[in-house]
Amino acid sequence: MERRERLLLGLQYVLGQIAVVLTASLCFLFVRLMGYRIRDLKRIRNEVKRMYRAYDGPWIVCPNHLTMIDSLVISYGMLSLADHILHFRRVLWNLPERKNFQRNLFLALICYLAKCLPVDRGGSREGIQRLLEKCCRVLDWGQGLLVFPEGGRSRTARINQENFSYGVGRFLDEKSGCRVMLVYLRGDGQERYGTMPRLGERFTMTVEVFDPGGVDGGGLRVQREYARRIVERLAGMEDEYFAGCG
Amino acid sequence: MSVEQITQKVIDILRGYVKDSALLEKATQETHILKDLKVNSARLVDIIIKCEDVFGTSIDDDEADRIATIGDAVLLIQQKAA
């Protein structure tokens, strides 16, 4: 990674930290205004806090993906407003698709300050490589990365075990010190994928530490196997969610 | 193995991953696997792993990252086989 890129990434983090009182407050205000609630919020935040206390190194957080604001709701569910401000290091780096937010300057600024690293889907090899280097750099800093292992919102509204992305496997293969946290988030009314959850949505959120285990061999096969195991367990969490609804 | 033979085998492998098989009929060495054949990046990884199996070679991350077109894949396999 070039020195300039490293400095720019560091600058993004510092500016984000300076602005976190404003950006986190805005995000929390948004969640409140939309009437979103998460069941057992306090318990979930305590659970996440325990996980961070047990391991202060880099986490790769892998959720299911149904709406465009999942990462925001997950951040709200994982950390209190005070924790966002006092432990900005624990706020996850996120990888949104650039075209989804860069048309709106305000949104682009908020995303920049909220630790977003834009992805150009189908972009140049150099661009993808630069993004991977940035991700590895933030993991080297001991910070967390939010990666949707499905690679996009699930078109069937269920975990897609056939057509998922292997990016998360690459991070696990390259960065052996990372731990994996799985998050399953679903609103009561989320019957299909969409842009935003409905007003007043009530979410169920479950978090768990996942050990992907070892994989023999090397290279792309290892990455695919890690990603497969993560997606498989997420599908298991989804089954548990629906079993609990019944 | 000649370039033509490798190309044909690569196209045969691609057949399992390209939804619109008509796109493969006019495929050339310059055909971009992601953009022209509408294959997503995860499936490109599957294609590369399949190529490893079919051609009995191994392709590392950096080499895989360099594969964008059919020609890139053919050239890499040819170099590995040499």
| Greatest contact between two chains | A-B, 17 and 19 residues
- Tell me, rounded to a whole number, the average pLDDT of chain B: 90
Helix-and-strand structural type of chain A = alpha/beta
The number of distinct structural domains of chain B comes to: 1
In spatial order, strands of the major sheet of chain A run 1-6-5-2-4-3
Residue stretches of chain B low in confidence (pLDDT < 50, at least 5 long) are none
Structural features, described:
- The complex is a heterodimer of chains A (246) and B (82).
- With 246 residues, chain A is an alpha/beta fold.
- Chain A has a single domain, classed as Glycerol-3-phosphate (1)-acyltransferase (3-Layer(aba) Sandwich).
- In chain A, helix 7 packs across helix 8.
- The mean pLDDT of chain A is 93.
- Chain B has one domain: Non-ribosomal Peptide Synthetase Peptidyl Carrier Protein, Chain A (Orthogonal Bundle), CATH 1.10.1200.10.
- Chain B is built from 5 helices and no strands.
Briefly characterize the structure.
With 246 residues, chain A is α/β, with parallel strands linked by helices.
Layout of helices and strands:
The complex is a heterodimer of chains A (about 250) and B (about 80).
Chain A: H1 3-33, E1 37-38, H2 41-54, E2 59-63, H3 70-78, H4 81-86, E3 93-94, H5 105-113, H6 125-140, E4 145-146, H7 167-174, E5 179-187, E6 202-210, H8 220-245
Helix pairs in contact in A: 7-8
Chain B: H1 3-15, H2 22-25, H3 41-55, H4 61-65, H5 70-81
What attributes characterize this protein structure?
heterodimer; A: 246 residues; alpha/beta; Glycerol-3-phosphate (1)-acyltransferase; six-stranded mixed sheet; B: mainly alpha; 60% helix
